[in-house]
């Protein structure tokens, strides 16, 4: 073969311009643009987080402790390495306001700060004033949501524990807010010194201290971390520094972006179907050219090469447009992002995400054009003499099948590697491939059925219906490409709809039914008896569970650092609630080993949550070291038990025998199941008798979670809408490609006596059948995906959600109908002779 | 000729060509009597097909009047024309124009169905057999030869037993034997059902069997040969 000849042929063919390729270009450009934009935004946020790490963290480094302050010697060590040290205490509490004999209570995340706070940045207040001035004496500032909920304005008084404070200003922005992570309550800031006398930081209370260090410029962070870890070994200290100022945020952005890239890839797959259809239609139109070239002596390979060059050039153009859009979009949206996001954003053109998007684009273009291209080799010169419209049927040569497999593997592999969530990516790819398979089957089934029905007696006399059935079942590839592209887009939307509805349902309905009304923390041991007494005599209370709680970090497993054994498992990440018990609490199901005997007072022993133990790889008899209050306790695992974390009840991964922990200062937690009518009175009585305790209304907490979820769902919906737009473009493309055929059919039908109404009904029925088939598969595929995600990822139950499913199918059928009818207008208006003459 | 089935009075046709409007037919006046067989002959590009389209109401005359069965085709809208053709006319195109997504049987049955015949498919099958395509009933157009497609097109036009059959080179793609069969079919239609035929043809044998032959040149009627007066 001759490459030069191929290039010359390609160049001549490309002179025809881009007509017929707009759908091809749009599909590729849109998919690539979506992925490039998501990647660029992620990169922008992460670059911003990195650049502003110290600001977000509130210092160049932070050393935090649970339950305790730094000892003087420890503090001295910090002063030694730092230029300046700022101490913060962080805990949950309840703001109490009494007004006209009514008592209002609101959950809050309290930050007690010293005079050095904030080391970096400034706290913005309304009315504007220096933080010093706002916090002087018993002054405090809080977020507007909390002030509004409590009906407070600057100048008003409120109580926290058993001390009174004055709200001086509304907290607009704390520089280290994004680094603090997810709090269940709005923020309140006061001086740590002002907490004295509030009774809130009694021994055993859940609180955290954070020491922010301003380091000399050029400080070697990794070296300092190593020194700190060594100095504080076994003291329960956690180190963070400006290299990753907001790890929670980084993780969130990462996950979110990975997820959106997967959605973008799904969009690219939808686009791929359109690309494939466009190339097929183009090459079908070239059958005569190809046959002629072959008659003139061109080899199959030369022709394949010529068209490969053409399609490659066009794909390059589409991908280029996509990259330009994907890079420009974040730049254009930069002001908006900077205003809307609570984190700094460094918006520039980032090369890595563009390269990633381009790679996806190239692989997709190759994957979806290979088969139609391969068929050019098989067009025989005889096509000129037989029917020029006849398509080459059957499978392409094995080389191309193998190449297709390799390309698909490369695409999925790349997605798995780059997304950072390989398992999810693989499952998503599997889902998409399965959906495509299902759609191919559905399209084939539909054509079969239509062909059969078209012959059935019952449709005789219903000309429009028979024509529609004949067109769906007859030769021509339109049915397949419409069902495929629309069906895949709709399937993805349906899956998202199902998952979203089920998650929402789980959070808002199912959970609260089984979940307690209140979750209470910081009950001092001497308060427990009175606390239980108040609840047990209340007929509105159906169940109360309590457990002692301390917080501890799992530091070692069998003498090796826990992170080495368990990697990044959530159980060893940061500190966990840990409890102790003599007898197994009511309802405990021991799945392996045995609970220690009552009154056991030998060396420490432990019962571990079975599921988590399995994930980490723990066995009975393993030694686990837990650091509680700076003290290492090493215990042998003697049993595993079932722990259900999904009901918002009390669930501890680690339970120790009571001899091991009961000496340590600790508090109790409780869950209260109560009638809704009894809730208010319970809260009032408990909170006034025990001002130090914090009661979290589970429904409020769930609402917060639901809010976060809504934001997630909204982001995903944006991603999915790109998929939908691609689907609509493919649909319009298919309708446009079919327009010539429609015009011709309508002219012939009119010649043999069909009125416009009949022709229109025929077109409408045809579109509706294709739309309905795509929609039906979408419901099935969406339902399956929803079920799989709920069952295996969320480990929850699945219930089919009909509203969104129905909306999606109707939308799909309507879309095809509109696209079909939109393109039917011209055919109907045309005079038969004008149309038919052009084809003489 | 008292009651012509077709009557064209001073008809012109102007089409928008690339270099502006082109007048293709210039003031054609022509009557076709009931039961007559009219042949249209003339060099390529002389306007034969265009004239046939005008007679079938498939093209709108730029000026003049086209009366068919006493009705003015130039005044009818698309739907009225479609219904008129459904009841009275069959058209065979020079390049057949079968619908590619339909089998031969379906192509032939469609006009019968549109005309409200309950036994459309049986009649369509019968018609296909009569043009020698009994074995090709379930074939799609792309699976048939040119001549076979032409016979399907003829069956489609003839099946509803139209009063007026317009055929553009109905034997153009056929060999002697098949062309003969088609001619027999066409003239049988006339003899048995009293149909009027308008045939465009280059074939002398076909022209010879016509009652009258009208010769077109450059969009004008250049002459007529009357073989046999219409009764
Ligand atoms: N859409 C059009 N616009 C302008 N001119 C046209 C158009 N279609 C056809 N013509 C011209 O009209 C003239 C008559 O065409 P017509 O098809 O009626 O010829 P014909 O006699 O049937 O020829 P043939 O025997 O080759 O089929 C031709 O010169 C042709 O070039
Ligand atoms: Mg002609």
TrEMBL record, chain A:
The keyword Transferase does not apply. Keywords: Cell membrane, Membrane, Transmembrane, Transmembrane helix. The chain crosses the membrane at residues 21-41, 259-283, 304-337, 357-374, 395-418, 424-446, 467-496, 712-738, 759-785, 805-825. The keyword Chloroplast does not apply. It is a multi-pass membrane protein. GO terms for cellular component: plasma membrane. Residues 263-375, 723-827 form the ABC3 transporter permease C-terminal domain. It is found in: Cell membrane. Pfam families: FtsX. It comes from the Bacteria. This is FtsX-like permease family protein. It comes from Rhodovulum strictum.
From TrEMBL, chain B:
It comes from the Bacteria. Transmembrane segments: none annotated. One of its GO terms (cellular component) is plasma membrane. InterPro entries: AAA+_ATPase, ABC_transporter-like_ATP-bd, ABC_transporter-like_CS, ABC_transpr_LolD-like, MacB-like_ATP-bd, P-loop_NTPase. CDD domains: ABC_MJ0796_LolCDE_FtsE. This is ATP-binding cassette domain-containing protein. Residues 6-229 form the ABC transporter domain. Keywords: ATP-binding, Cell inner membrane, Cell membrane, Membrane, Nucleotide-binding, Transport. Belongs to the ABC transporter superfamily. Macrolide exporter (TC 3.A.1.122) family. Signal peptide: none annotated. One of its GO terms (molecular function) is ATP hydrolysis activity.
């Amino acid at each position: 073969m001759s490459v030069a000849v191929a290039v010359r042929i390609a160049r001549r063919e490309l002179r025809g311009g881009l007509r017929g390729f707009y759908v091809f270009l749009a599909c590729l450009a849109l998919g690539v643009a979506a992925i490039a934009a998501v990647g660029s935004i992620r990169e922008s946020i992460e670059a911003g987080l990195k650049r502003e790490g110290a600001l977000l963290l509130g210092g160049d480094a932070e050393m935090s402790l649970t339950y305790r302050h730094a000892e003087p010697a420890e503090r001295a060590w910090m002063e030694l390495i730092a230029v300046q040290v700022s101490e913060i205490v962080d805990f949950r509490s309840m703001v109490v306001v009494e007004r006209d004999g009514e008592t209002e209570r609101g959950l809050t995340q309290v930050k007690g700060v010293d005079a050095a706070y904030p080391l970096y940045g400034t706290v913005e207040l309304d009315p504007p004033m220096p933080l010093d001035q706002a916090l002087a004496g018993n002054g405090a500032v809080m977020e507007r949501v909390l002030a509004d909920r409590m009906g407070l304005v600057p100048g008003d008084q409120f109580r926290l524990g058993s001390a009174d404070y004055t709200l001086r200003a509304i907290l607009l922005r704390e520089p280290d807010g994004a680094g603090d992570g997810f709090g269940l309550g709005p923020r309140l800031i006061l001086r740590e010194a002002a907490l004295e006398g509030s009774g809130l930081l009694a021994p055993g209370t859940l609180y955290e201290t954070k020491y922010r260090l301003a380091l000399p410029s050029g400080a070697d962070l990794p070296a300092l971390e190593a020194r700190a870890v060594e100095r504080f070994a076994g003291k329960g200290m956690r180190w963070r520094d400006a290299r990753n100022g907001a790890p929670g945020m980084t993780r969130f952005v990462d996950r979110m972006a990975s997820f959106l890239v997967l959605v973008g890839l799904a969009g690219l797959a939808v686009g791929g179907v359109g690309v494939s259809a466009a190339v097929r239609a183009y090459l079908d139109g070239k059958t005569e050219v190809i046959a002629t070239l072959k008659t003139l002596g061109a080899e199959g390979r030369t022709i394949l090469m010529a068209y490969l060059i053409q399609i490659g050039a066009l794909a390059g153009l589409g991908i280029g447009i996509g990259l330009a859009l994907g890079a420009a979009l974040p730049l254009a949206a930069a002001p908006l992002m900077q205003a809307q996001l609570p984190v700094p954003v460094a918006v520039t053109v980032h090369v890595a995400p563009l390269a990633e998007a381009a790679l996806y684009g190239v692989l997709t273009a190759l994957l979806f054009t290979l088969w139609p291209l391969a068929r050019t080799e098989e067009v025989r010169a005889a096509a000129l003499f037989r029917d020029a419209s006849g398509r080459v049927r059957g499978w392409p040569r094995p080389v191309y099948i193998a190449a297709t497999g390799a390309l698909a593997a490369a695409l999925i592999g790349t997605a798995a590697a780059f997304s950072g969530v390989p398992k999810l990516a693989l499952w998503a790819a599997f889902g998409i491939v399965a959906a495509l398979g299902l759609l191919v089957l559905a399209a084939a089934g539909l054509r079969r059925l239509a062909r059969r029905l078209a012959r059935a007696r019952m449709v005789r006399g219903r000309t429009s219906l028979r024509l529609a059935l004949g067109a769906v079942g007859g030769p021509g590839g339109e049915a397949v490409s419409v069902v495929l592209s629309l069906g895949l887009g709709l399937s993805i939307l349906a899956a998202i709809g199902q998952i979203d509805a089920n998650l929402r349902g789980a959070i808002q309905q199912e959970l609260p039914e089984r979940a307690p009304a209140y979750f209470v923390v910081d009950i001092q041991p001497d308060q427990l008896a009175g606390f239980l007494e108040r609840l047990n005599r209340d007929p509105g209370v159906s169940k109360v569970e309590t457990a002692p709680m301390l917080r501890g970090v799992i530091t070692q497993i069998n003498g090796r650092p826990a992170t080495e054994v368990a990697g990044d498992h959530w159980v060893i990440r940061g500190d966990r609630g840990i409890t102790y018990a003599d007898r197994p609490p009511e309802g405990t199901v021991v799945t392996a080993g045995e609970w220690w005997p009552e009154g056991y007072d030998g060396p420490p022993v432990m019962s571990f949550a079975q599921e988590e133990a399995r994930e980490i790889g723990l066995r009975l008899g393993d030694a686990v070291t837990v650091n509680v209050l700076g003290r290492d306790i090493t215990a042998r695992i003697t049993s595993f038990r079932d722990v259900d974390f999904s009901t918002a009840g009390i669930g501890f991964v680690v339970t120790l025998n009571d001899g091991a922990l009961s000496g340590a200062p600790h508090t109790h937690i409780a869950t209260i199941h109560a009638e809704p009518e009894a809730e208010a009175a319970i809260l009032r009585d408990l909170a006034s008798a025990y001002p130090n305790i914090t009661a979290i209304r589970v429904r409020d907490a769930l609402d917060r979670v639901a809010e976060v979820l809504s934001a997630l769902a909204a982001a995903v919906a944006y991603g999915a809408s790109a998929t939908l737009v691609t689907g609509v473009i493919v649909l319009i493309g298919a309708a446009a490609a079919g327009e010539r055929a429609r015009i011709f059919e309508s002219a012939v039908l009119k010649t043999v006596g069909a009125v416009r109404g009949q022709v229109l009904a025929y077109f409408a029925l045809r579109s509706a059948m294709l739309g309905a088939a795509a929609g039906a598969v979408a419901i099935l595929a969406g339902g399956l995906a929803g079920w799989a995600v709920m069952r295996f990822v969320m480990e929850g139950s699945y219930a089919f959600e009909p509203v969104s499913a129905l909306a999606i199918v109707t939308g799909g059928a309507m879309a095809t109908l509109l696209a079909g009818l939109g393109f039917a207008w011209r055919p109907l208006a045309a005079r038969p002779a004008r149309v038919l003459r052009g084809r003489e | 000729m008292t009651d012509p089935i077709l009557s064209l009075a001073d008809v012109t046709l102007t089409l928008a060509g690339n270099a502006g409007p082109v007048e293709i037919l210039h003031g054609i006046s022509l009557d076709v009597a009931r039961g007559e067989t009219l042949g249209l002959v003339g060099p390529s590009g002389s306007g034969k097909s265009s004239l046939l389209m005008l007679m079938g109401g498939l093209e709108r005359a730029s000026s003049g009047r086209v009366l068919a069965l006493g009705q003015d085709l130039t005044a009818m809208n698309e739907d009225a024309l479609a219904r008129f053709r459904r009841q009275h006319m069959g058209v065979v195109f020079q390049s057949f124009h079968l619908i590619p997504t339909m089998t031969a049987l379906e192509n032939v049955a469609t006009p019968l169905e549109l005309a409200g015949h309950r036994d459309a498919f049986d009649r369509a099958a019968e018609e296909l057999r009569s043009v020698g395509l009994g074995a090709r009933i379930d074939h799609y157009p792309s699976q048939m030869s040119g001549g076979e497609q032409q016979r399907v097109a003829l069956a489609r036009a003839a099946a509803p037993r139209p009063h007026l059959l317009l055929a553009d080179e109905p034997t153009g793609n056929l060999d002697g034997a098949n062309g003969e069969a088609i001619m027999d079919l066409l003239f049988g239609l006339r003899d048995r059902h009293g149909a009027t035929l308008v045939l465009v043809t280059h074939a002398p044998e076909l022209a010879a069997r016509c009652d009258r032959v009208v010769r077109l040149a450059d969009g004008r009627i250049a002459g007529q040969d009357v073989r046999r007066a219409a009764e």
